[in-house]
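Practice problem 4.
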């Protein structure tokens, strides 16, 4: 055996070890993911005497490991999205010995944040900012209500722990009774003998808070003090082996019973150690750029970037340890600048398609586009991603790619077996890279009559036309139906006949509508669905505002007409003729749908078969299908 259980530590000793960098995190560890509720529940468990499970440390003594592998400090001042990455610490061969946390990072970080740091998360019903903003993400400290226990709490907690901002704390703590205790104060309480704890710590603190007669407060504060300063609650197994492969195996086995390892976690264990520079920082910078860049705002995870990198270098993207080799990491680093640029240009292209962060229902659907732009060469032999966003070039390419993209988003193709569908689609794209344009037709053909069939039938199209304003797929449907809209403009989804006109009170007051007509008008499936929606640019949206459709079409100076709505001049735009307008436009949109997507012949194919995507490369595929 290469390790053993050591003498347990107090929480105070563990926090001191974190602060002195005697406890560090290996690169293999994922980032901190616990919520504020989970942290509160951990402290509730500590106070109630519940076990918080054992920890596993890796004692680092070998100079080669210190020199060749990267380690990270514990996270302080956690802020959702904006400070989630552990800071790198410079370690060299002569650095002091330390312990790397193999199992227990989330719990130790939670204890550390609760006792001496802060936790910031977004306020409810507030949009995410593009840069850190304390008004949206105020730092919070952990507090405990000493006055009384929780009753009938759904989380099954007994003690009332809360993360509070400074403003909230001032509002809750009255001048007379200061019942909210900051846990930072507990850590800083003097370390006295057990016999003196009540007289020298508990009683003075309660007297200062006017809680001397509260038996719950005295009992709770004593328990908390003892749990932090006296009780040896941190039981840990100390792994002393300096064989990295052995420790990696221990890590995988130890963590397999908890939250499943993310795609990126195992890769990081090798990637960071074999990367010339800070790999984590590279990925963090890229994700921040995509999220914070003007007009983008897409939030992507580390997993997505690493999966895309493997995709672009034509390697297996599935979650298998054998795929995470040193050679593969070095191959990614060699091409990293090109991979980064391609990813950036791909998200710029997606935004030009009119898809925003809210309407991008599958980030995995972006990966095949990224692959095509990376591997496809233009007429000058350069990667296509270098020119795809030049609006004077590659017009047909953008049209084909956008059509495919809208179709896969609406069909939900990447909703299951994501790695498998990505890999199988890569094979089709790779085999057809000599085609002049994105091989949309070849992809359609490859998945015909499978559970990933990209074609639409009449029922599916009817369901698409029933999509309501506000649904995430609404924008995607409208962009698919109106490809002529300029990619350089930002479009708003607008009700053609203003929604305020459809209130039942308004209809009844007019007195011109029958009960049947009123029932038709107030039905949101009519006025709030695709047939009464359109994409308008800033100037058109501003000029229309809440005007009735008929008067706006007649009076607007932007040249917008019936033709832009796909209906002819024989269709009345008057509100009293809304039923005729709705039916005519829905039929026109359905016809446009048929023109823009590929249709499944219901007479020839009555069912789809499951496609074994994991073994797609072994399928017999007609070469005429894949090669033009």
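Answer key:
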């Amino acid at each position: 055996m290469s390790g053993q259980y050591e003498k347990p530590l107090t929480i105070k000793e563990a926090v001191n070890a974190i602060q002195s960098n005697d406890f560090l995190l290996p690169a293999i560890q994922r980032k901190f993911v616990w919520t504020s509720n989970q942290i509160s529940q951990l402290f509730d468990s500590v106070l109630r005497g519940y076990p918080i499970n054992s920890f596993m440390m890796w004692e680092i003594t070998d100079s080669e490991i210190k020199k060749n592998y990267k380690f990270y400090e514990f996270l302080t001042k956690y802020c959702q999205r904006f400070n989630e990455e552990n800071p790198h610490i410079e370690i060299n061969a002569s650095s002091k010995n330390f312990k790397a946390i193999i199992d227990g990072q989330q719990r130790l970080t939670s204890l550390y944040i609760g006792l001496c740091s802060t936790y910031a998360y977004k306020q409810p019903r507030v949009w995410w900012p593009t840069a850190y903003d304390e008004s949206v993400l105020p730092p919070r400290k952990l507090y405990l209500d000493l006055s009384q226990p929780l009753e009938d709490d759904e989380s099954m907690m007994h003690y009332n722990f809360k993360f509070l901002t400074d403003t909230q704390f001032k509002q809750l703590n009255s001048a007379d009774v200061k019942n909210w205790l900051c846990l930072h104060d507990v850590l800083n309480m003097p370390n006295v003998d057990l016999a003196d704890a009540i007289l020298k710590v508990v009683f003075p603190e309660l007297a200062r808070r006017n809680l001397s007669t509260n038996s719950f407060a005295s009992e709770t504060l004593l328990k908390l003090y003892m749990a932090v300063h006296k009780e040896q609650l941190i039981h840990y197994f100390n792994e002393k082996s300096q064989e990295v492969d052995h420790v990696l195996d221990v890590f995988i086995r130890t963590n397999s019973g908890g939250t499943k390892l993310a795609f990126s976690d195992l890769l990081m264990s090798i990637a960071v150690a074999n990367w010339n520079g800070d790999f984590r920082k590279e990925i963090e910078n890229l994700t921040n750029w995509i999220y914070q860049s003007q007009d983008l705002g897409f939030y992507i995870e580390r997993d997505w970037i690493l999966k895309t990198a493997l995709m672009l270098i034509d390697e297996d993207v599935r979650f298998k340890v054998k795929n995470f080799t040193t050679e593969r990491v070095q191959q990614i680093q060699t091409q990293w600048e090109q991979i980064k640029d391609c990813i950036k240009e791909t998200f710029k292209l997606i935004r030009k398609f009119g898809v925003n962060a809210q309407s991008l229902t599958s980030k995995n659907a972006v990966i095949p586009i990224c692959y095509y732009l990376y591997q496809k060469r233009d007429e000058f032999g350069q990667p296509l991603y270098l020119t795809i966003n030049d609006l004077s070039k590659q017009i047909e390419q953008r049209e084909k790619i956008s059509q495919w993209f809208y179709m896969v988003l609406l069909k939900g193709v990447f909703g299951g077996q994501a790695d498998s569908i990505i890999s199988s689609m890569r094979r089709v794209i790779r085999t057809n890279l000599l085609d002049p344009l994105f091989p949309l037709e070849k992809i359609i053909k490859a998945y015909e009559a499978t559970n990933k069939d990209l074609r639409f039938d009449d029922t599916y199209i009817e369901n698409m036309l029933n999509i309501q304003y506000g649904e995430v797929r609404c924008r995607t449907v409208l962009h698919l139906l109106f490809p002529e809209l300029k990619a350089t403009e930002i479009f708003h989804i607008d009700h053609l006949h203003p929604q305020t006109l459809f209130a039942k009170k308004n209809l009844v007051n007019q007195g011109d509508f029958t009960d049947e007509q009123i029932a038709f008008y107030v039905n949101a499936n009519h006025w709030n669905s695709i047939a009464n929606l359109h994409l308008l640019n800033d100037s058109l949206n501003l000029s229309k505002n809440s005007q009735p459709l008929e008067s706006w079409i007649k009076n607007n100076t932007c040249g917008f007409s019936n033709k832009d709505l796909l209906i002819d001049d024989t269709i009345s735009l008057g509100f009293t003729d809304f039923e005729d307008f709705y039916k005519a436009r829905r039929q026109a949109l359905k016809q446009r749908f048929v023109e823009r997507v590929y249709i499944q012949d219901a007479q020839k194919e009555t069912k789809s078969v499951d496609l074994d995507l994991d073994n797609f490369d072994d399928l017999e595929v007609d070469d005429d299908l894949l090669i033009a």
